[in-house]
């Protein structure tokens, strides 16, 4: 009897671990009250499309806001995106529009509420299985340029300061790490914290997929590799130096998927990492002005590019044990007539390898 009970529990656990689930990723919807892009109809269609995909959770790649400093900006976001937010846990990452001026403090309050109150309320079953690591870094760092508090630890942050919006969570066989990159080209995530989570995920035999979300892409078909030129305001996106900081860690600890935003298009790269591949996906087509220019051929990303879409979209990731099925869904229509269509799909994992994909 006792053995039968144990076997039943084991069978349930095995069955539960193997049960497929999905998550959705999008970014740069740039919600705002006074923004000139507030009226983009596809932005109103997006939360309805996401709701109907029934994702287990939603990841955001930054720039939730256009004007994150507006006092009621996040209340507006909760109103516009209610159809999605009331059914799916939502995990953001800081974008430069979210951080601008005093916006980072609004973002931090939103993030804390989302992680500790809203997500457990909308999906209690998910919350019971999800372990969130937020505000888990006791190290004192400078919180702004020139801050003397924690100055000795400045060496661990290339930007020299952090607002401590970085966090991680694990759910079943997936480990997600959200970086802080809200000041555009800087890297505000302390290396010791990032490495601790990458190591933890890498060494955990139950984790099969490590996913990073970060606003600023480190591979891009449109962005400038170089640091900004002080003589030219707005110049330089610094993609090269940011990549030099993060990529060795992603390679060492077997990161599989890196989602970014900031560039307003779908821009996918497959970068070899020994016998594996790191898939870098820029998903910045949530509602901000779409990119309309040409593509760079002079950056390292050019050798690894796979697909691009200059259109509004979301990315769906279906998780079936070690296998992932990734789809880019183009979004059209508006709140009364939301439409989506498949732009591209691909598979990762042993099943795809066995099929020669
Ligand atoms: Fe951005």
How would you characterize this protein structure?
- The protein has 357 residues and is of the alpha/beta class.
- The protein has one domain: Purple Acid Phosphatase, chain A, domain 2 (4-Layer Sandwich).
- It is 29% helix and 24% strand.
- It contains ten helices and 14 strands.
- An eight-stranded mixed β-sheet has the order 4-5-6-7-8-10-9-11. It has a six-stranded mixed β-sheet with strand order 3-2-1-12-13-14.
- The longest helix has 20 residues.
- The structure holds fe (ii) ion.
- The site of fe (ii) ion has 6 residues, from helix 5.
Helix percentage: 25-40%
Number of domains: 1
Q: What is the CATH superfamily?
A: Metallo-dependent phosphatases
Number of strands: 14
Q: Segments where pLDDT lies below 50 for 5+ residues?
A: 3-16
Which CATH class is shown?
A: Alpha Beta
Q: Kindly, what is the distance between the CA atoms of the first and last residues, rounded to a whole number of angstroms?
A: 47 Å
CATH architecture: 4-Layer Sandwich
SSE-based structural type:
alpha/beta
Each distinct ligand: fe (ii) ion
Q: Report the sheet with the most strands, covering strand number, pairing sense and barrel closure.
A: 8 strands, mixed
Oligomer status: single chain
CATH topology: Purple Acid Phosphatase, chain A, domain 2
**SS summary, helix count:** 10
Report the radius of gyration as a whole number of Å. 20 Å
Mean pLDDT: 90
Write the SSE topology:
Layout lengths: L1 H17 L2 E6 L14 H13 L3 E4 L12 H8 L1 H4 L4 E2 L4 H4 L3 H20 L1 H6 E5 L32 E5 L2 E5 L12 H13 L5 E5 L25 H14 L4 E4 L5 E8 L2 E8 L21 E5 L3 E8 L2 E10 L6 E10 L1 H5 L3
The protein binds fe (ii) ion.
């Amino acid at each position: 009897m006792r053995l039968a009970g144990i076997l039943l529990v084991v069978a349930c656990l095995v069955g539960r671990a193997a049960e497929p689930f999905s998550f959705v990723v999008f970014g740069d919807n740039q919600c705002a009250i006074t923004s000139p892009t507030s009226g983009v109809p596809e932005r109103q269609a997006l939360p309805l499309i996401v709701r109907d995909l029934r994702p287990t959770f939603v990841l955001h790649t930054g720039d939730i806001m256009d004007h994150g400093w507006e006092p009621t900006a996040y209340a507006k976001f909760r109103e516009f995106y209610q159809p999605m937010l009331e059914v799916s846990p939502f995990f953001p990452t800081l974008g430069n529009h979210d951080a601008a001026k005093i916006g980072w403090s609004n973002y931090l309050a939103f993030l804390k509420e989302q992680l500790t109150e809203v997500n457990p309320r909308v999906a209690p079953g998910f919350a019971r299985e999800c372990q969130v690591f937020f505000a888990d870094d006791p190290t004192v760092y400078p919180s702004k340029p020139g801050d003397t508090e924690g100055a000795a630890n400045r060496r661990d942050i290339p930007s020299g300061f952090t607002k401590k919006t970085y966090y991680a969570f694990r759910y079943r066989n997936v480990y997600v790490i959200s970086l802080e990159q809200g000041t555009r080209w800087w890297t505000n995530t302390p290396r010791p914290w990032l490495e601790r989570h990458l190591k933890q995920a890498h060494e955990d035999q139950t984790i099969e997929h490590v996913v990073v979300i970060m606003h600023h892409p480190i591979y891009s078909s449109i962005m400038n590799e170089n640091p900004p030129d002080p003589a030219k305001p707005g110049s330089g996106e610094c993609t090269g130096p940011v990549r030099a900081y993060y990529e060795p860690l992603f390679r060492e600890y077997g990161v599989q998927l890196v989602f970014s935003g900031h560039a307003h298009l779908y821009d996918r790269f497959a970068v070899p990492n020994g016998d594996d591949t790191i898939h870098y996906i820029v998903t910045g087509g949530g509602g901000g002005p779409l990119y309309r220019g040409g593509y760079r051929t002079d950056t390292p990303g050019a050798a690894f590019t796979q697909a691009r879409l200059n259109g509004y979209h979301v990315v769906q990731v279906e998780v079936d044990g070690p296998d992932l099925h990734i789809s880019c869904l183009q979004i059209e229509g508006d709140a009364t007539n939301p439409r989506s269509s498949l732009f591209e799909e691909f598979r990762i994992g042993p099943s795809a390898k066995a099929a020669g994909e």
